[in-house]
Every structure is written in C-alpha cells, then in structure tokens.
Amino acid sequence: MAHSLHSLVVVLTVTRLVDCINYQQLLLRDLFRNYDSDANPGGTGNELSAKGASVTFAAKLVRVIELNERANTIQTQWWIQQKWINKDLSWNKTKYGNVTVVYVDPKRVWTPDILLHNSVRLFDSAADDDRLSGSTDKYKTKIGIYPDGQHYWLAPAMFKSVCDVNTRFFPFDDQTCTLQFGSWAFDSSKLDMIFDRNESGTSPYQMNTEWELLAFDATLKYTKYSCCQYPYTSVLLEVKLRRRFYYYMVNLVVPCSLIAIMVLLSFVLPPEAGERISLGITVLMAMAIFQELTSEKLPVESTHTPLLAQYYSSAIAEIGLAIFATSIILNFHYRKNKMPNYLRKLIFSFAGPIVGMKKYKDLARSEKLLRRGQERANGTSNDNEHFKKGNNCELKSLSLLQNDLIACEKEPRNEFQRGKNHSSIRETHILEDSEDNSADQEDKGDNVEKELADIYAKEWQEAARILDRLVLLVAIVVCICTFAAIFIQAPRVQEHLFGDPAITEEQRLLLRRK
C-alpha cells in the first residue's frame, strides 16, 4: 500500500513539471511567432510627444581596476541595469499556467543600443578584447520578461574609457573621470533614457589599493546635433578618485629627499679630506639615475609639470649649485695672497656674525705689526749699505793689508806698527759685524714674508669656514622651502594644513547611497 502511494506522488509531480515546461514552451512559441527583434517597441511616432521606448538606466560601480595616467584611460567594473516595456512581448499569465517571468537570450528580443560613447574600444570583434569594448555585445546575461511586457536586463560589465587625467599635483592629485552612456542610433523621439538614482550607487564597491573613491554622481544630458531634429539622450556617470600617496612618498619622494640632503655633507667634511667635490658629483649622478629610473612611473604630461617632477628638477639644480659653492669655498681655503679689504669686510664683518663666527685672532693687527717690523728691517739694511759705500776706500785698504795683519799678530816690530795693527783689526771687526747684521736682516725679512703668508693663508681658511657654515645654513633653508613651496600647491595638502574640505557633504551622501 505504501509503495503504491509513493508511486502516485512521483507520477503527479512529474506530470506537474511537464505541464509547467509545456506552458513555458507554449508561451515562448506564441510570443516569438510573429515577432521581429528589430521593431522599435514604442512604434514610429514622428512627434516628440509620441515617444518611442523609454529605457530606465541605472549603474552601480563595483570597482576601479586601473587608471592609466600615461594613456589617459580608466578601467572600471559596473553592474548595468536597463528596464523598458515592450507591449509586443506581453501575455495573460492565467492562460499560460501563471508563468510570471521568462528569461531569453538578448539576441532574440529588441535591446536598446546604449553604448559607452567615450570607450577606448567601441566595437571589437576579438574575443579577448570584447570584454573591454563599449558595445552591448559584452552583455551576456539573459533578459527577464514579465507579463506586462516589462524587460529587465542586469549585466555585469567592464569598461575601458577615456579619462582626461590632470597630473599637475601628482602624487597628491584627485581625478574625475566621466563615462557617457547613450543610444547611438535613436534620438529621444525613438529612445528616451531615464536615470534611476535609487538603483544606482556604490553599494557593491570594492576598495582599490591605489585610488580612494571620493564621490559618485550622475546627470542626464540632452545633446542636439545639426543632423537630427530631436536631441539625443545620454547619462553621464562621474567618478571622483583620490590617489593614495603613501606608496609614492615611500618610494619616490623620501629617497629623493635623502639623496638631495646628502649633498649638505660636503659642507661638513674638512677641505683637507679632498672628497668634497667627488661627493657632490656622486650625489648628482645618483639623483640623475634615480630620476631616470622613476620617470617610467611618472605620467606623461605636456600641459602641466607634475609636482614630483618639479621637485626632482629643483633638487638637481640645488645639488649643482652646492657643487659650485663647494668649488668656491675650496678655492678660498687654499689661497695665500692678501685678501681684498672689501672681501674681508664682507666676510668677517657681515657674514661672520650671521653664522655666529668671528676671527680666530686679530689677523689685521698681526699683519700691521709684521709690516712695521718689516719696515724697520728694511731701514737697518739701508743704513748698512750706506756704511759700506761711505767707507769703500778703507775697506779696500783693509783688504790689502790683510796678510800683513796676520803677520803682525805673530811678531810685532815696533810701536807704530802695533798701533796700526790695532786700528786695522778694529776696522776688520766692524766689517765682519756689518756683514753679519746684513745677513741677519735678510733672514728676518724672509721670516716676515713667511709669517705674512701664513697669516694670509689662515685668513682665507677662516673665511672658508665662515662660508661653509653660511652656505650650509642657506642650503638647509632652501631645501625646506623648496619642498614646502612645491608640494603645498596641491589642494589636498592645503586641505590637511588649513582644513579646507575637498568633498562636500552632498558628495558623501552620494557615496552612501544604495
């Protein structure tokens, strides 16, 4: 008995399923018996009041896949929803077993030719690239048809569209990309678009690691062309993005700043080390190589120079100026001639107090004393020369009697000879003392010149030390001011510093709209 009841239940269930399948097949056969998919569901009205199909369009942003600054393109994923009514495909559900919906292939029914106008590839026959085209062929999902003739088409799609990227404030930039959807063949008298805000939004949005979604908005646009009587309807989807700058700060800005700061070490190294110029040139080459390596990541922009490119160029220029200043300071350090008075006054009286450095000792006073000693030495030498010239005859006689003087020292002959010998010996001592004094004065003159040269050299070295500190302080200030002046141009930086909101409350509400 139980077996018989089970068999009866199975038979009734199978019969019901067969009847249901037969109803759907019957419905589809009746719907498409005399149906032409090219026929406009709204008829062929000639007046704007006799509109054709009204298509309700909605879009939900799923994710931002890529924004290519160099190619000025953006790749996004959307859920596209389209609804319209086609009375030619309506039925009485009571006649077809209460079938409330059927799903058909898009090729079997009329579909609106709503395309992405600013797509990179509007039509593409290649199977691999069709997913990025802007045509309706990319929609592979079935269309749901309801008894009142309403068509519901929900399809996920990826688009690659043109985006006017402005990289002036890179990497602190905000970008606004617009996607324009509209009919290509039908004007508003044949196909009128209605945007459904309630079904649009960013509820399924998935976060992008490089771009932050700031706002999403949509507007309905009517465009009148000279070829046609009625305007064309289109929907503009506006996506506002903000770049996440942490990656670029860590990988591009910070290394560049560290390389630029290293050139300041050339003003700290002692000149005797002989590595100051080589350090500057090494830093300059490293900066140039780093800029070349990172140029591929920088967007190509002819109308505006990105902030990061401005900073690179400024850093290279500052490194070149630092090498130039180092060359001048080294030239000062190894000089030994007398410093011009105007330069001495400029460095020791003006620049020295600014950097908190004074003369190591009173070089001017020491130079004055040495000059006075040199003048005295020159005067004594002239007196000796006068003495030599005035007593030339006596000196000659002394030299003639030299041999006799030597003999007299051994054995004097008489009183007269002894007196004469004593006089000659005294004059000989005077001559010897005069020659010794002249030699001493020449040695003193040489020593004075050496001491003067040492004083001059120390004075130049002291000036080089002052310039080292002055240029170091100026370079630090210039580096900080350059960094601040370049990057403060970005509105995003101004927002963080001065609290200027870059996104309105209305835009935030749009982001939360489901």
Q: Write down the overall geometry.
A: rod-shaped
Question: How many helices does DSSP assign?
Answer: 11
Averaged pLDDT, please? 78
Which CATH C-level class of one domain is it? Mainly Beta
CATH homologous superfamily of one domain - what is it?
Neurotransmitter-gated ion-channel ligand-binding domain
Give the N-to-C terminal Cα separation: 57 Å
Radius of gyration of CA atoms, rounded to a whole number: 50 Å
CATH architecture label of one domain: Distorted Sandwich
Question: Biggest sheet, strands in spatial order?
Answer: 3-5-6-2-1-8
Secondary structure tally: strands: 10
Largest sheet: 6 strands, mixed
Contiguous low-pLDDT stretches (5 residues minimum) are 44-50, 380-421, 502-514
Order of helices and strands: HEEEEEEEEEEHHHHHHHHHH
- Helix content bin: 40-55%
Give the percentage of residues in beta strands: 15-25%
CATH topology of one domain: Acetylcholine Binding Protein, Chain: A
What structural class is derived from the secondary structure elements? alpha+beta
Describe the structure.
This protein has 514 residues and is of the alpha+beta class. Among the domains are: 52-243, Neurotransmitter-gated ion-channel ligand-binding domain (Acetylcholine Binding Protein, Chain: A, Distorted Sandwich); 248-352 and 470-511, Neurotransmitter-gated ion-channel transmembrane domain (Methane Monooxygenase Hydroxylase, Chain G, domain 1, Up-down Bundle). The chain is 47% helix and 18% strand. The protein has eleven helices and ten strands. The chain has helices spanning 2-31, 246-262, 276-294, 307-333, 341-354, 363-390, 392-400, 402-410, 415-487, 491-498, 505-512; strands at 53-68, 73-85, 102-104, 114-116, 143-145, 150-162, 174-183, 191-195, 211-223, 232-243. The strands form two sheets. The chain has a six-stranded mixed sheet with strand order 3-5-6-2-1-8, with no helix packed on it. It has a four-stranded antiparallel sheet with strand order 4-7-10-9. The chain is rod-shaped.
